[in-house]
Design goal:
It comes from Xylanimonas cellulosilytica (strain DSM 15894 / JCM 12276 / CECT 5975 / KCTC 9989 / LMG 20990 / NBRC 107835 / XIL07). This is DUF58 domain-containing protein. The protein is of the alpha/beta class and about 425 residues long. It folds into four domains: about 50 residues; about 100 residues, Immunoglobulin-like (Sandwich); about 45 residues, no CATH class; about 160 residues, 3-Layer(aba) Sandwich (Rossmann fold), CATH 3.40.50. It contains nine helices and 20 strands. The strands form five sheets. The protein has a seven-stranded mixed sheet, sandwiched between helices. Strands 5-4-8-9 form a four-stranded antiparallel sheet. Strands 1-3-6 form a three-stranded antiparallel sheet, with no helix packed on it.
Length: about 425
């Protein structure tokens, strides 16, 4: 019986010991972090290694009376003390970071300005200012500044691709020549630079497919609209302006007009962000530009616009907000296919009169047809397949019109072909 219970008892003892050690180690580790925080906050990996080797050399040299180790300990100690002298002193700068524009288009020039000023009554030692830009960082040496003097740096930000670039915060850096110690201090808040996609103006006849003077007629009956439907008996509370007096005079009973409710033109753009739907980044960038061009034209004409992507919807109530959202989106692997987004659009954008699918070459015809089948029968549906370098073409899949675009400049002509069909 004792032998059978031994493993369970041993496991319980081991668990008790582990819990006890953990409870003892956690406070010790917290104390160690507090004690070493001043060192780890300014020391690089080389600095920490030099400090550890110096301590070990002192202990071994004094214990073993080893002259060579004593020399190593002395050299490292002098080096560390000299490094401390480089990073001592208080930072008393006044730093300003300005972006000439917070929103630019791909390829436009984006300029930033960094101003460092000495507001103290004494001169400040030279330092380095670092400005993180996206995934990288730019370093600007700041010379010795006399009281009241300032140093200015102007720099450019690459805008080769659509993105949202975080600029800042500006950090002042003091470090020794060997890189053992490094002291930083942040001076500004990070700022965002929106690099908007390139868009194409669609003014003129190319947007005729968006225009609908009286809107889309529905089967819903309204008491006030444009399209006359029938007459009915007057009910207290009806607008007297809609009384049909000729019929009233003939029948001797008040009759009012009824109308078929019409809906204002509303464009829904379904932009696929599924990585598998595109063969390259260039395809996706062209699709984003096409989506932006359609959305901006609808906003310009004061038409309703809704932009849906695989992860949700974008803001289509203002051109700047739409372009800001388009600057952020990325193509990512997703199980949500175009048909799933179309199903969501059919339920959430019930007043859409025109739906445009914007996709890449990776979407097969079967998926386009399945997405089109999710849309209501009285909605005009078209697909814009973006394939850089391809020739402009038009084909139909069942009742769906599919346009293949090889470049953004072909979009106006492609829309005119839809109007002529």
């Amino acid at each position: 019986m004792a032998r059978t219970d031994l493993p369970g008892t041993t496991r319980a003892a081991y668990a008790t010991v582990r819990v006890a050690l953990r409870r003892a180690w956690d406070p010790a580790a917290a104390l160690l972090r507090r004690v070493t925080a001043p060192l780890t906050a300014v020391a690089s990996a080389y600095g920490i290694a030099a400090f550890v080797v110096a301590i070990a050399a002192w202990v071994a040299g004094l214990t073993l009376a080893w002259q060579e180790l004593m020399v190593v300990a002395q050299v490292l100690s002098v080096t560390l003390v000299a490094a401390v002298a480089f990073v001592l002193g208080r930072f008393r700068y006044t730093v300003a970071l300005d972006l000439a524009q917070s929103r630019v288009t791909v390829g436009d020039r984006a300029v930033g300005r960094l101003v460092v000023r000495n507001e103290t009554a004494r001169a400040l030692l030279p330092s380095v200012m670092e400005v993180p830009v996206g995934q990288g960082a730019a370093a600007f040496p700041v010379p010795r500044l006399r009281p009241g003097r300032e140093h200015e740096e102007v720099f450019t930000i690459p805008t080769r691709r659509r993105s949202v670039i975080s600029v800042g915060p500006v950090r002042s850096v003091r470090a020794d020549p060997l890189g053992l110690l490094r002291r930083e201090m942040s001076w500004t808040e990070p700022q965002e630079l929106y690099v908007h996609p390139v868009v194409k103006s669609l003014s003129g006849s190319s947007t005729g497919f968006l225009k609908d003077l009286e809107g889309r007629v529905t089967q819903d009956i309204s008491n006030s609209d444009v399209s006359f439907h029938a007459l009915r008996d007057y009910v207290p509370g009806d607008d007297r302006r809609h009384i049909h007096w000729k019929t009233t005079a003939r029948t001797g009973q008040l009759m009012v007009r009824q109308f078929e409710e019409t809906r204002r033109s509303h464009l829904a753009v379904l932009l696929s962000t599924r990585a598998e739907d595109y063969a390259s980044d260039d395809e996706f960038e062209l699709a984003v530009s096409v989506c932006g061009s359609l959305g901006l034209q609808a906003i310009k004409e004061d038409r309703g616009v809704t932009v849906l992507v695989n992860s949700g919807s974008l803001r289509g109530d203002h051109r700047t907000r739409l372009l800001d959202d388009l600057a952020r989106i990325e193509r990512t692997p997703s199980r949500t296919r175009l048909a799933d987004v179309a199903r969501l659009a059919a339920h959430s954008v019930t007043d859409a009169s025109v739906v445009a699918f914007v996709v890449g070459s990776g979407v097969p015809p079967a998926d386009l047809r399945a997405a089109s089948a999710r849309m209501p029968q009285d909605v005009t549906v078209m697909a814009l397949q973006c394939v850089p370098g391809a020739s402009l073409s038009r084909r139909t899949i069942a009742e769906l019109t599919v346009l293949t675009l090889g470049g953004l400049g072909e979009l106006p002509l492609a829309l005119r072909r839809v109007n002529e069909a």
